[in-house]
Amino acid sequence: MHAAVVTDFGSPDVFEPTELPDPAPAPGQVAIDVTHAAVGLIDVYLRQGLYQDQTGLPQPPYVPGLEVAGTVRALGDGVAGLRVGEPVVTLSGNGAEGGYASVALADAALTTSLDGTGVDPALAVAAVPNAATAYLALTEVAHLKPGEHVLVHGALGGLASAFPGVARALGAAGVTGTVRRSSLERARASALPYDEVVPADDLAEAVGDRRFDVVVDPVGGRVRTASLGVMAPMGRMLLVGNASGDWQHTVPTNALWGGNLALLGYAVGFHLPHHPELAGPAASAALEAVRKGLVQIDVQTVPLSQAAQAHRLLENGSVAGRIVLTP
Ligand SMILES: NC(=O)c1ccc[n+]([C@@H]2O[C@H](COP(=O)([O-])OP(=O)(O)OC[C@H]3O[C@@H](n4cnc5c(N)ncnc54)[C@H](OP(=O)(O)O)[C@@H]3O)[C@@H](O)[C@H]2O)c1
């Protein structure tokens, strides 16, 4: 198979196109002929070596890529409910790297059929895994209730884009997005189902006296602390990423006590593999939201041989929507 291998921790230059033996599925896994592999900021962090001391995370040389779409090539022992040739997409949290390749392995429990859905595989891999993550974060962690108001930071980002559609499907009364000023124009032209998108730079002024029951924060840094001032009593903030790159930022915890607020972390990769029973409902909700056009994220396809360039684009913040590699 063709693969884009990370040969060392470091800059995007560490990518090397490599021919590797086709992998065979272990029991409970499927092998997938990959047509599209998603690229996310987490791939960038792993390649940079940000988590190099954390056990269980990949060490070079490795093939990155957590989410793929394609067709089932082979079934491991004990796999039922999927057939060879079936179009599929995998959910985040597969636990496995290996997506930046022409053949990838995935846990069957976290592999969802696209048969008969009419969902394009490029959109599927760009939107379904993140929409499933959004569903899990909003239902299992933030316990979003119908009629509540949601605020989503970094509103056009890969993960963030999945939240407004899923929140609406769960009955949210309104969804507001925030972006940096440089993205405001693009946000206002976006097909994502936000009621409004406001500048993140001065959050308090931008939202006035509106208050939010659930805040979704994949950005971190200053906007995280600013969010405490615009949350409704009993509000919950989902900490789901740190796109700001501000790893030193801390939040004043006495503000939680005084404001009746909660901060809740969620990382799908450390949750879903331990709760595969949640994958089916999350995948169904995600696919339904995508099929209804609620997660219309822009998808930019780049050949697998240009994986390094895809990472450069993501690192310098010039991706509108999501990048998908095609082997
Ligand atoms: N918790 C989970 O299970 C999970 C799953 C997937 C991803 N993540 C995490 O979520 C975060 C976002 O990942 P992604 O793949 O969605 O990334 P992405 O597509 O690059 O989106 C990041 C967004 O953050 C915004 N942003 C604000 N300040 C920024 C800054 N200083 N530098 C760069 N971007 C900034 C950007 O929006 P504007 O420029 O428009 O403001 C951008 O659209 C990452 O930390 C990733 O690890 C978590």
Describe it for me?
InterPro entries: ADH-like_N (IPR013154), ER (IPR020843), GroES-like_sf (IPR011032), NAD(P)-bd_dom_sf (IPR036291), Zn-ADH-like_protein (IPR051397). This is Zinc-binding dehydrogenase. Pfam families: ADH_N, ADH_zinc_N_2. With 327 residues, this protein is α/β, with parallel strands linked by helices. The chain folds into 2 domains: 144 residues, Medium-chain alcohol dehydrogenases, catalytic domain (Quinone Oxidoreductase, Chain A, domain 1), CATH 3.90.180.10; 141 residues, Rossmann fold, CATH 3.40.50.720. Strands 3, 4, 5, 6, 7, 14 and 15 form a 7-stranded mixed beta sheet that branches. Strand 11, helix 6 and strand 12 form a beta-alpha-beta unit. Helix 2 packs across helix 3. The protein is globular. It starts with a strand and ends with a strand. Bound molecules: NADP nicotinamide-adenine-dinucleotide phosphate. The site of NADP nicotinamide-adenine-dinucleotide phosphate has 28 residues, from helix 1.
Could you write a compact summary of the structure shown?
With 327 residues, the chain is α/β, with parallel strands linked by helices. The chain has helices spanning 41-48, 121-141, 162-169, 184-189, 203-207, 222-228, 254-259, 279-291, 307-315, and strands at 2-6, 15-19, 29-39, 68-75, 87-90, 103-107, 111-113, 149-153, 174-179, 196-199, 212-217, 231-239, 262-265, 299-303, 322-326. Strands 3, 4, 5, 6, 7, 14 and 15 form a 7-stranded mixed sheet that branches. It has a 6-stranded parallel sheet with strand order 10-9-8-11-12-13, sandwiched between helices.
